[in-house]
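Two proteins, back to back. First:
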Amino acid sequence: MRKILSAVLALCCFAMVHAQYLKPVKVETSLKETSPTEAVITFVASIQPGWHMYSTEEVDGPIPTTLTIETISGAKLEGALKHVTPPIKKYEEMFGTDVYYFEKTATFTQKVKLLGGKYVVEGYLKYGACNDQNCTPPTSVDFSFKGETAAPKAEEQSAAAEEVKALPAEEVAASADSVSSDSNVVTAPVSSEGSIWTPVIDQLSSFEEGGNGNSADSSLWQIFLLGLLGGLVALVTPCVWPIIPMTVSFFLKRGTTKKSSDAEKAAAKKRGIRDAILYGISIIVIYVTLGLVITAIFGASALNDLATNAVFNILFFLMLLIFGISFIGGFEITLPSKWNTAVDNKANSTTGLLSIFLMAFTLVLVSFSCTGPIIGFLLVQVVTSSIAGPVIGMLGFAIALALPFTLFALFPQWLNSVPKSGNWMNVVKVTLGFVELAFALKFFSVADLTHGWGLLDREVFLSLWIVLAALLGAYLIGWIRFPHDEEEYDEIGNVVLHPKTSVPRFFMALISFAFAIYMIPGLWGAPLKAVSAFAPPMKTQDFNLAPEQEVKPMFTDYEQGMQYAKEHRMPVMIDFTGYGCVNCRKMEAAVFTDPVVADIMTNKYVLIQLYVDEKTPLPEPIVVKDGEENSMISIGMTADVKVAASDGKKDYQYENTYDSNTRKLRTVGDKWSYLQSMKFGATAQPFYVLLDNEGNVLEKSYSYDEDIPKFLEWLNNGLSHYQTK
């Protein structure tokens, strides 16, 4: 048992580390001479789980994979870059079109015709990659191949010459270009103390919560706490709460009789405490194993696609709808009784650890009618959040469910003060049913937006939530009843038609009615910050009296923006974004349109918006060396590596002359991407950072999180720190 638990915890730790991986794609390049007159350049991409790399298809949005040849002589390209791996096609609602991408691996090939003699082919492959939270900036993979083949026969030379004559003038010039790729490289200013390019990674890490405002580690902790909350709720359901005292008493009294001596009773109590602890550990192992099974069945990539996949969202909608109806008393969801009987009989016929484990498994089966809907709701939330979500969520759920059995075994006197079973547990169950029905609508809304059905626009969604909140309040106050609610009787045995409302139910009803009233202005376009993360976007609102406020950046150039901030003594907000970044658009639609947020960003900060996928060429390329990103320096690519290739008949040789430690910045987007990685140690978008006008950090960084109050707090903290400097 201890080994199983250790393995589970190790897997959890691995998943948490893996979830923070921010360099998701590795591309290896090679050239193979398939004959004296032909060669193939191959690009093999290894893609981390949960990420996808876009294909070569040009669409209005994501960054496609493209090939650029900078220098070519003694050879010419044949055809275009082709993908060998079939891409996945998916409709992306944010872009309004189909996108094509790869998962796990992708292979691209480019055919090259060799004209005989020495040849040189230099250039770069550029690609974009995203997951369900972030996108990396457009990434370039440079290559440089040179080699020599035998001179072609006279008739082949004549045919090649005729082909060159038929080429456009600019392509002939490119083919004849044999100038070194370093000839256009310029040296950028080296960073010095006080420069706005000086790295501030240590400053970011010095803040209390670290760098990224919603890192993967933070997300996993939120999932763990959500699971913990789910387990605590499951404890007070009718299927679990009454079992606690019976189970604890069984462990403490097992193996004793009325005639047992005090020593025997003490030994039995000690053994009972041990068994109760093992019982709790067994519950944890069972539920965490369930999380591992869910991840294994779906796979990491599928789990990350669930957030926007219409089919899965419809399935989640139906599942939560069924669970919700079950909780309010429509029907019971139970496992086959023979399962419970078989496991219970097995537990009674065995001894030792196996017996305790089977007893825990019996609890899981018996309590399924109450815990099943809660687990289902929890898994729906966590599988769309992180590839490690099911494991971490189930760990939190299991700890909350198992802890009372151990604590009451250690302190049995506490059992005397816990509330007795009663109708209050059914009230908890029905309340959860209303919550599940409300969240079922959220998942149907995602599918509706993806396919553009228009069935659940914002005002329809809010109307249903208003009705559900009002009905929940009516139930809590006692105006409506459901099948499992117990009847109350007076002193002479008559049913009380209007039972008294307890104080806790009164306040819960008050909150529910207030929430319903709060949402009513949303029918006319009020932003409703408390539900903005769940409701459809404002653009689906047919009648809107509160038009959105647009935030426009003051600058799209880092140096110019910082110069303006210095002259006017203002703090700076940098928005690292991308044209193909889905979550960047979501942040702009859900957070930047808030009037208070827009006012602060526009009037109290110098907003600099930097697109890392901007394709405008730099006046001159800049070469930087990885591992020495404290400055931009000019470095030649001088490492020559000879590689042998074979077509099965004859061996050919080429030289890969590219130094893999160098990187060339060719476009404006390359420059801003380099700024983000060199100065802030980050690579994903969206990424927001607050600076003073000297380039120093004012607050921790912020990434994708549509929590408006949290974003406002972040902005105000930056202003406060700037004013105290």
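And the second protein:
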Amino acid sequence: MSKQMPAMQGRPKIHSFKLLGRLLSYLFHYYKVRLIAVFICIMITAAAGISSSVFLSLVIKYVITPLIQGTPWAEVSTSLFYIIGGMGLMYVIALCASVFYNQTMAVVTQGFLKHVRTDMFNRMQSLPIRYFDTHTHGDIMSTYTNDTDALRQLISMSIPQVYYSIVAALVLFVIMLLYSLWLMFVVFVGVAIMAAVAKYVGSRSAKYFIRQQAVIGKTEGYIEEMMGGQKVIKVFCHEERAKEDFDKINDELCDASDKANAYGNILMPAVMNIGHFAFVLVAIVAGLLVLFKVQNLSVMGWEALSGAVIASFLNMSRQFSLNIGQVSMQINSVVMGLAGAGRIFELLDEQPETDEGYVTLVNAKIDENGNITECAERTGKWAWRHPHQADGSVTYTELKGDIQLYDVDFGYVPEKIVLHNVSIYAKPGQKIAFVGATGAGKTTITNLLNRFYDIADGKIRYDGININKIKKADLRRSLGIVLQDTNLFTGTIMENIRYGKLDATDEECIAAAKLANAHDFITRLPEGYNTVLRHEASNLSQGQRQLISIARAAVADPPVMILDEATSSIDTRTEALVQKGMDALMQGRTVFVIAHRLSTIRNSDAIMVLDHGRIIERGSHDQLIAQKGVYYQLYTGAFELE
């Protein structure tokens, strides 16, 4: 398992060094020793690149000048040998250092991205349902793909290159100060112009690169939505409108990319040409200093300006400009990488689902007197373990499935309440049905039972315990759910059924399939229970997928079952087959049913008719028919659900 990243507070800001510092801190958290070794190797490589100018100065001073002055070759050859030997040794060391840091950075980059994806996925698993309801799946996927790829380029290429160039520029700066303050002043002028241009152009390209990363996520979100809705698009002949909407988003992405690259692509040529201008200016000033016999000023004092100094300084000024140009060339990648890192940190900064519950679910033995004893092994009986902080005692309550809602108010956003004063009493083994138009609040009630969302006011009690006191994982373990939209995963049918209870045996999974009346069609498949389901189980019919989903809930064997339009996607013939299994599944359980087919809820103990978040009618089927209210009109067809 991945290490936990250091605690980091606040939203990342692209236009500050804070985000870069956070990224480096995150990186060093995993690869501190390797990165220190890499930075040392980069310094060695940078020093080797600079050494050519120093060696040039030494060759001119100790070889060429003495030869011109008539010194015999034999006297200068030794100096040349040492200079060439020193250069060769330096370049061999630099070659080894370069190979080491490039190989190490390749390993570090991929390993770091693995940690990032792991940390993102772990954080995503801890996020509340609200997050996924308010973010498109494509936008989230873009964080795993485009943003991590931008981060890869930043770490593997841009950071080492920028560090190399900065180290080289700083060393060159110091050496040039040692050589000539007059010429260094000319370089300062060029650097100031480079910095001004880089700041002006870089700030504008950064704005559009940040926008580009955001629009990429928006584009992927739209594409993901369109791919999932292809049948609807074709049925309603919506292809042209879909293309028009995509063109708008695509134009927005193109515009952001155009402007980002337009600014980004002029930065390198502008900086490099300013560097060329500075080189020419240095050469002119050096020539004038020699022509007018002006004494050279360096940190070492006053001295005559020699040919060795001029040649080396010119070479160093060119290297200095090249390194500044290399930094400017990486600005685009740095900005894109930081934009990607910002979006990644936004996901990592999302607040995980809070859980202040302390009541847990345990295996229990219950004797004939009703005394409950906690057990380590599975007994088939469950109890709520309720520790009391006041006196340190622990009490146990048998898990029965007694659920009660008292005057519950709820809104997905505080300013808009969607449930008003809802009260429901479900005794163990009862079947409670919800009927109402779309948006009436039926699914919202089941979301509250799972604590996917927390109520704004009122209370929900489970076996007499306030569900806010129950740990969410234990609460959800006691609830089974079958949704209208089936969610099957890539893998075998057996694995998908076992998803409801990971330690279930093959026999238990087969028994659950038989209960859901899925066994017959599964055994007719070529591979039976070992049949591998493709993407979204496209090799099965909608009804077959739903039957497997019901079998998955059955193998979990929870005391409370939630059926959210569980048979709406099953044809009438299949529904008749599954209804018998559903009835067996519901035996002895508290069941909450949401259904548009009123024939499936006739035998419910209580039917709740909801309208705009309020319960307007309640009672058994016969009672509601006798009242001749909304339910009567729905059942007789005088009124239809919308």
